[in-house]
Amino acid sequence: MDVLVILIPVSLFLGGLGLVAFYWTLRKGQYDDPEGDARRILNPDYDDAPMPRDDEERP
Amino acid sequence: MSTTLDAAQDAAIDSAAPVRILLSLPGIHCAGCIASIERDLGHHPGVESARVNLTLKRASIDVSPGVGADELVERLDRLGFEAHELDPGTLSRGAGDRQERDLLIRLGVAGFAMMNIMLLSVGVWSGAEGATRDMFHMISGAIALPTVVFAGQPFFRSAWASLQGRRLGMDVPISLAIVLASGISVYETFHSGPHAYFDAAVMLVFFLLAGRYLDFRTRAAARSAAQELAALEVPRASRLDPDGEHEVPVADLAVDDLVRVRPGGRIPVDGVVTEGTSELDRALLTGESLPAHAGPGTALSAGEVNLTGPLTLRVTAAGEDSSLHRMADLVATAENARGRYTSLADRAARAYSPVVHLLALMSFIAWMWVSGGDVRLSVNIAAAVLIITCPCALGLAVPAVATAASGKLFRGGMLIKNGTALERMAEIDTVVFDKTGTLTLGTPEPTNLDTLDADTSAVAAALAQASSHPLARALAARLTVTPAAIENVAEVPGYGVEATWNGQRVQLGRARWVGAEPEALTAAYLRIGSAAPCALTFTDRLRPGAEAAIAALRRQGLSVRLISGDAPGAVAALADRLGIEDWRAETLPADKAALVAELTAQGRKVLMVGDGLNDTAALAAAHASVSPASALDAARVASDVVLLGQDMTPLGQALRTARVATRRIRENFVISTVYNIVAVPIALFGFATPLWAALAMSLSSITVALNALRLK
Known about the structure:
By secondary structure, chain A is mainly alpha-helical. Chain A has helices spanning 4-27, 34-40.
């Protein structure tokens, strides 16, 4: 059972990482257009961000 | 995202920076649409970037100053996409957005905590003993307590508010269950008890937040839909000041201001014509499909459309006094009456709360008596009862179905504006249609062109091309002959077009002007030289899908009626074409509302479909109401559902979806009740363990959510 001393902090850390990632996606507006994002993958054009900050990022 | 947006909005104030234009695109549905729209707009001179949002069916375009929305709308129209300009001011991202993100982050935290605690709980359930179990409980508690405090806030706040109002809302038992479960678990942990309910407490918070979030999303979608509709009308007018013409917001107009209305423009305020002659489309106000003549001295009401010549009018009533505003007040009153409709969820909650509290209290008292005063055991059992009965499934029952149903309808091109609209639409047994602008598009279509000889049609085509009047444009579009060579073409605003052809005077226009007897039907009159004038008759073009929608409603066993402010001839022709037996013509706005009230008094549930100001009272009085996107603002405000595209076919599907959705909601109530009937006795007799609570809770919630998804 000594392994728990490592496993529990590890699982908490990984979960926390997921939480931080979720918060980040939320802040970046990745849930603003779920349907469009799902279809954009079929689009042959290069498109690198949900919301381009300026036109240099777009080809 | 918000930072970029805000930055862009801030930057827009700076005149050199790009301006953001918002367009509504009701017709887009696939990756191809996104790509071709973004690519095409990118090629337009002055467009810096274009981004389509498929979920909102909206495009936001950054353009350099000077590029107007009209040219973009026109460009998309050529590409084959319907587009409308939206007013960005009305659509500002407000408190709703922040609230949604707030709920979502709480949901995320609860989910994270739930998964971690569940891992530890599985350890306890599979037989961890003694010190290991206590340590697991402690770690669970360390995760659960902050989570409950943070993520449970929406419930605590609303429970507190309802207690202050001396009511027992759904949130009171929820909060009580969360607090009791956490409190008992802390006590048990420190006394090395075998059971801790941390997982149950967090799971409760998670499932309930999920329901709360879905509910909020549907409401927010409805609200943003309403906002979007309001934004469709960019409320500006051009005011004639001593130093020239200025574009001003309609709200800034005052009585006695002079306002210029160009052909094709909507009259922004009530007024009297001081200069210019033209023709008016009054269909939105009265339902008449024939254009009316306007000259100096004609009184105009806000909402009419100026057709041919520029008009200058003196404002007689603005803002609160205008006829539009009075109508809006009327609608507000009627809406209040409808607001009294109690939704299924409210009815369920009202029955539910007292029962749960009573059950928990009774189990506590009973166990105190059975166990001879063992407070710890009794409180444990009372908490288990509260947790088990806690309305996870009940909280998800309505929002999950509403989300699925409104998503389905939105994909079909319909916007649900009201939370209880689906339930009300499911009860409909009679559908009343308005004619002009609802079943028809308000666009004329010539009917007797094949009776004209070659010369007559050539002259008619030539004259029609010279005018921008809707009748003339319809003629020009349908006459495929080579236009005759005419000279000295002159448009006489408000009357028609005249010219000379082979030395003869030729005229196309109003009956009296060319010297003809006006007919009952919509018609333009053509006179060649001294020959007798001939009438070119028109019929209003049918809205696409109108026939299909009416056939679908009939198949569903609904009675269909037609009621219009137009002349009997035109109404009878349309009713005949669509096979509607029950129709009425020349009705006043009050008659329409009275008919709806009469049908309601007969015990019928009426669905009103209309677009004009004259339908507004009826729309508000009906059990449920639908209006097309082209409807007047007041009519759209009064209706529960708005058809986004031109097509009316989705209407039949909407009623069917509403009925199925209501059935699903009822099924979900049955599922959660059955689950309670099974689980409550187990809790009451003290057999409920945290494992059972967790299993039952997640099973019922998932069943309910899956049942809702069957709608798709």
